[in-house]
Every structure is written in structure tokens, then in C-alpha cells.
Sequence to fold (231 residues):
Amino acid sequence: DAGVIQSPRHEVTEMGQEVTLRCKPISGHDYLFWYRQTMMRGLELLIYFNNNVPIDDSGMPEDRFSAKMPNASFSTLKIQPSEPRDSAVYFCASSSGGRHPYEQYFGPGTRLTVT
Amino acid sequence: AQKITQTQPGMFVQEKEAVTLDCTYDTSDQSYGLFWYKQPSSGEMIFLIYQGSYDEQNATEGRYSLNFQKARKSANLVISASQLGDSAMYFCAMRVPSSGTYKYIFGTGTRLKVLA
Fold:
């Protein structure tokens, strides 16, 4: 079975540019999570979806960040405009909420560098 | 405030010995979940173990066990018979109800190094 797929794996962009991170959850999973990991702040939950509907976006840092889940097999996290402080590893994770909502399967992450 | 505290930034353990990674939590909710993740140097996060606040028995998964002490608000991870492949960052996390949904809170992690 394919795990959670994220693209791109690495992204280097200049300040002010738009960045879009993509995620394909595990088929059949009805929860999708976006996390950000930095040395300074550790692992932070940004937003999560249940059945494609955003449930909690209180972790989204500011209006420059937006996330969508147009269908059960695809989600995007967009940063516009990007800033150097957005440099981090962004993880997408999915889980099958009905059985094990706490057992999240993480993707390999996207390492974002904003110069 | 809801919080997870991992006071050990780094730990060493000799191969084949047991090691305990500390985790304390703070919540006023009666119903919550605690779990541990492992992050090897390759970067992926791997779910290890879960403990519900109403579970009377400590959770175990193979060589991993969770020493749940509710009164002390601690959820320490015990790894028995350490292996070199256990070298990684370990994160303690909590899921708490919040306004009809859940919040997920992670600790800052403990880096474990297993010595041959």
C-alpha cells in the first residue's frame, strides 16, 4: 500500500513568492492533517480535515497560509506571499478516524526554504 | 493551559538495556489521549503507542510500553531491550477535546542515542 505522498520533497523559493505544497492521503483515511516542524517551535499542527471539511485551523499562523481539500485524495497547503520565517519541514498525515483516530500516518515531509 | 513537557532533550542508552523517556502533560479534561511518535534521522514520523485516559491498563506494543500515571499526569515511554535502530527523536503528544473537535499537542521531543 502506498503511504501518504507529499510533493515536492524540497522547495526553495524567494521571499514573496507563492508556494503550494501537495498531499495525497492514504486511500480510505478520512482525516488529514498538516503540520509544520522547526527547530525553534517543534512540531505544530496547522490544520486538519475530516471528510474533506476543515475542522480546526487554529494553528494556521496567519492569513498568508491557506489549505484546501477538494476531494478525499488530495489536499494543498498554500503560502502566499512566503517569508523566510516560513522555512520549515511541512508534514501531511492521515488517519482512519473511525478506528484509530490517534494513529496518524505521516508523509515524508516537504522541506521548504524561503530565501 | 494544555501542554506536553518533555524535559530530556537528549538521552543515551546502552544496546539491549531498557530506557525510559519522560513525558508530563497538563489538561483539565477528563477524556484525552496520549501517544508517542518516533522520528528517525530520515525524517518520517512513526506512530508507536496510544493510551486513553480511561484505560486502566498501561498500553504495550512489542518492546514499547507506556507507563501511565494519571495522578502524576505522566505518560512515560519505556523501550525494553534497546536496539541501534531505536536511535531517533521521540515525541510525546496529547489529543484533547476542544469545541466539538480535538486539539493535538506535541512535546518538544527527546533525542535518544543507543550505544553499541
In short: The radius of gyration of chain B is 14 Å. The longest strand of chain B covers residues 88-98. Chain B is about 0% helix and 55% strand. Residues 10 and 113 of chain B are 8 Å apart (CA to CA).
